[in-house]
Predict the structure.
Amino acid sequence: MALIVQKYGGTSMGSPERIKNVARRVAKFHAQGHRLVVVVSAMSGETNRLVALAQALSRAPDPREMDMVVSTGEQVSIGLLALALQDIGVPAKSYTGGQVKILTDSAFSKARILGIDEAAIRRDLSEGKVVVVAGFQGVDADGNITTLGRGGSDTTGVALAAALKADECQIYTDVDGVYTTDPRIVPEARKLDTITFEEMLEMASLGSKVLQIRSVEFAGKYKVKLRVLSSFEEEGEGTLITVEENRNMEQPVISGIAFNRDEAKITVLGVPDQPGIAYQIVGPVAEANIDVDMIIQNVGRDGTADFSFTVSRGDLDKTVNVLDRVKAVIGAKAIEADKNLCKVSVVGVGMHSHPGVAAKMFRTLSEEGINIRMISTSEIKISVAIEEKYLELAVRVLHKAFDLDRHI
Amino acid sequence: MALIVQKYGGTSMGSPERIKNVARRVAKFHAQGHRLVVVVSAMSGETNRLVALAQALSRAPDPREMDMVVSTGEQVSIGLLALALQDIGVPAKSYTGGQVKILTDSAFSKARILGIDEAAIRRDLSEGKVVVVAGFQGVDADGNITTLGRGGSDTTGVALAAALKADECQIYTDVDGVYTTDPRIVPEARKLDTITFEEMLEMASLGSKVLQIRSVEFAGKYKVKLRVLSSFEEEGEGTLITVEENRNMEQPVISGIAFNRDEAKITVLGVPDQPGIAYQIVGPVAEANIDVDMIIQNVGRDGTADFSFTVSRGDLDKTVNVLDRVKAVIGAKAIEADKNLCKVSVVGVGMHSHPGVAAKMFRTLSEEGINIRMISTSEIKISVAIEEKYLELAVRVLHKAFDLDRHI
């Protein structure tokens, strides 16, 4: 008999009929004797509706009042799910973030959880009740309602699982697990039974948006056993995200192929090759709140260097503006921008003990005539920037080359 | 520079454009140097939408969870009004009932206010902020969200005005004040500049649904100066509801003609005329949570009595069922029901010092051939039950007879 935290997203809670389905699933676990804490998001579309109302009234909405408005979406969901559970005979009680209480800092719209008082939840669980908690929200030390930012319901689930030392945190989504790559691009993509937190972080940050990155970091830090499952399928074990690299020997070295279309490359040409130059370029960009991803520096023969890095496309114009301002200071000859890039990565904790992954990746791409524009590596991934038109081709051939295709 | 509590109902808050109008009105008072606490209802239609969602999920919704769901309507309103105020340069801060905190008992869906902590509000007011408070809701001693029942936002406004010792509590509605009778029936109906709490109670309970009765009782008890105004008109003083009977000598004896279509009459025929019989009839009816209104007992010549009373039409079948069960016990010969009744009342604090009001009322009705079926009186009103088809005629002739018509 386990203590399980389940989280259901907005799509799973999208209508009374779907909420009844969630209730039936929760009831099944409850009937098996498990103790259950259920975290829910707002009904799909509701948060957008509330944001639109606020924006109709304010050109620059105050984050405190915005949180007051949007936090109602999850509050409606918890009440409705508790009612649906009670209606099928399952004792249930709902809690807002403030009632739990989930204490956060006062960074409205992007608050961080500081602590959770789990006393009331434990009391209800010991009385056999299912406890339904509003995701995405908390309360600061002054009693103001805060929100954790979009997708924050995953974080609420993981944080509650950590505080309660739950046996498992189950995240129900509209996919049935984490795949070796996007099945829309590679129909042979395989669902993974397990993936490590590190791999999941690389997969998530590279565009496989199954889980919110912050919740995965949180789960890794607090050793919460995290499982991704589909709320629309009755059976299936989903994908377990584990701390340990507990694969058998037959497991492939590479777990998956991730990709991201949203890449743009900036090159600062002819900067003096001297200490501190990287900081002089990246510093002002970071100060403008722009995330820099891949970075490369090439030293030319004339004593100057070319400095390249990627940003998300939405930040490209802003980045060019920043660099135009510092161009003279850093003594650069020119600044070039390229929007037609994408990033493809092979990810796997096995690669650090298997040399030759990079070589295999580069050869596979070269055999298809795909030119690699930038390379970056970490312990568990190798990323390349290539022309965007080659994205699908690159993902397909790499998926096959690393033996990830489903064997039917 | 006064401390004013203003309350805006759901119609006034019905759309972003209307919320902007409320913000502009509040801003005007703020600019005049007044300190303002603004109580708001849910946007019109929102509470019904939430109730429908809950009812789609539960055949008998738990009141605690129902309150969790429906209280979000007012929470959205306070955030939106605070944003609208800030957008036009007025510093504003919103509070849920729980944040204030408005402490209630735990009678979910019909909670009573036990106390109000006004410290936070006073602090914000002293900083020049407009304080926006969610109507209709509070929090019990265990931190559960409660609601005061439909129309409870008026009560929130009056309770806050009492706690803050406000100079005035202004209730903004879709009418511009209290009228001598319904202008849809008598076009010559006049808006009253003042009315006493007692008269207002009689007018409200008799069908002039401008203010929630409970809020009027509350205002009378705590001597809160209450004013009803239109939120759709820029000018106008509305109607002031006062404690004292501070009329000038010229004021008519009667303040208004109230009426209620929702009446049904039950007659229990041939009950033994003995002590306790009234209780034996009315007791079981009250136990079934049915409100009994006018009561008459006639003693016949054969030592039996006929006992009649009115209930609201929706309760008629239930009442007949109750009495059918006790018929044998009380020894009644028969039970008769009549649905085609209505009640018309003349109301005025002046009548207790002016004999002849009843006589004038009965004569006026008799001159039109209207048969009086039941009569009940109090210190400040005389009510008659008549056939419903005569309602408009009765109201019109009484309005004229008591000199209430507007003199243009």
